[in-house]
Specification:
It is built from 12 helices and 15 strands. The protein is α/β, with parallel strands linked by helices and about 375 residues long. The chain has 2 domains: about 10-145 and about 250-325, Glycoside hydrolase/deacetylase (TIM Barrel); about 145-200 and about 210-240, no CATH class. The strands form 5 sheets. Strands 1, 4, 5, 6, 7 and 15 form a 6-stranded parallel sheet that branches. α2 (about 55-60) links the parallel β4 and β5 (about 65-75). α8 (about 245-265) packs parallel to α9 (about 285-290). The longest helix is centred in the last third of the chain and has 24 residues, at about 355-380. The chain is globular, with a radius of gyration of 22 Å.
């Protein structure tokens, strides 16, 4: 029987300027990240790559020692500029789930080039990280795009909503993603005021709704005229149409098989693991991932059932194995020093994941305290 399970930790960015990016809420500071690694070091964990799993499985070694997989989603530039030297400092390693469609050309950058370290890794940086031995690059699909999924308009764009709808830039101007570094709010004006925002989801969610250009033009026209009820005049106008099922399946294939081929060719390595953006997948997506040659996929964070060592020890092992991840909360008592809070959050989360009853109780108490604090803040507003 396994003594330890294999925790897989989901991270995104390590950055000390969260206020300078729409996705700053995803980041941990460099001090917090050091505290996480300090916990793993002191608690006797060894970091591994997904490529090490087959040998561990063959040797029946999973569960005998404390192993952990650290993963970074999205391929942010600060993974290279900030996280890399900290991992080297602790002698640890991690996996990056990157979108090759966002990886631009040019030389590897430094903090002198991008002082706030915000951006997406380019091809040169991905290669350097893969060659460092500290990071292993795997697939986050080709892009991290959003799509419209039906004809219901949920909002109209204005520049003050850029942080919420920044992804419209990638939708309307795909090359933007490769220039997405530094002060990204400079792109706010590239999205036309009044642009209709239909119901949206991650790019693999289903068939895409494609707005009719004439409908969009009329929306923009009404916005420029400061129309008091901009949508009423459009009720009798067709808003657009859906892509075909064949087109959807082709798009899924490009996101999965395409990204695997591009990363393997670019980095000269085996790409056997995929993480779906936003944990968005369905039976068709999983079937195509298996067909593309992936061996492991990250299950959606909302799926907390099962453990990883039993899933990887099944006989026979399925061709595509879904693995559970956990994340560390950003919501902790602000009275505590950030590094101390981060250390104990990591300790509580990992110990509870491993089945420690005391820490499971502690985690439940923290969740209850956070709910009470959130309710108090809501009442105050």
């Amino acid at each position: 029987m396994a003594r330890y399970d294999l925790p897989i930790v989901m991270l995104h960015t390590v950055n000390d300027a969260p206020q300078e990016h729409p996705l700053g809420f995803l980041t941990f500071s460099s001090r917090q990240f050091r505290a996480f690694l300090r916990f793993f070091q002191r608690d006797g964990y060894r970091t591994i790559f997904f490529s090490e799993l087959p040998a561990l499985i063959a040797a029946g070694a999973l569960g005998r020692e404390k192993l952990v997989l650290l993963t970074f989603d999205d391929g942010f530039l600060d993974n290279a500029l900030i996280a890399l030297p900290i991992l080297q400092e602790f002698g640890m390693k991690a996996t990056i789930f990157a979108n090759p469609g966002y990886a631009g050309a040019g030389p590897a950058r430094t903090l002198a080039d991008v002082p706030n370290a915000w951006g997406y890794l380019n091809v040169a940086e991905l290669r350097a990280l893969q060659q460092s031995g500290v990071f292993d690059v795997q697939s986050h699909t080709m892009t991290h795009d959003f799509i419209f999924t039906d004809d219901t308009i949920v909002d109209l764009y204005t520049p003050d909503k850029f942080d919420q709808y920044h992804w419209l830039c990638w939708m309307l101007h795909p090359p933007c993603a490769r220039e997405w570094h530094g002060d990204v709010r400079r792109f706010a004006s590239r999205i036309p005021t009044g642009y209709p925002i239909f119901t949206y989801d991650r790019c693999l969610a289903g068939r895409q709704f494609i707005p009719d250009p004439a409908f969009v033009a009329r929306c923009l026209e009404n916005a420029q005229r400061a129309h008091s009820r901009p949508l009423e005049a459009l009720r009798d106008m067709p808003a657009g149409d859906y892509e075909s099922q064949e087109a959807y399946e082709g798009r899924v294939r490009e996101q999965l098989a395409g990204s695997r081929a591009v990363l393997a060719s670019t980095l000269g390595t085996t790409i056997d693991t995929v993480c779906f953006p936003g944990g968005c997948y369905n039976p068709l997506v999983l079937a195509q991932a298996e067909e593309a040659g992936y061996r492991y996929y990250m299950r959606a964070s909302r799926d907390r059932s099962g453990m990883n060592v039993p899933a990887l020890s099944a006989a026979p092992l399925p061709p595509l194995v879904g693995l559970r991840r956990l994340s560390f909360t950003h919501d902790y008592p602000q009275a505590l020093p950030a590094s101390l809070a981060a250390y104990w959050l990591a300790k509580i989360s990992i110990s509870a994941y491993q089945g420690d009853a005391w820490f499971r109780g502690g985690k439940q108490m923290l969740r209850a305290a956070r709910r009470l604090l959130a309710a108090g803040r809501a009442r105050a507003h």
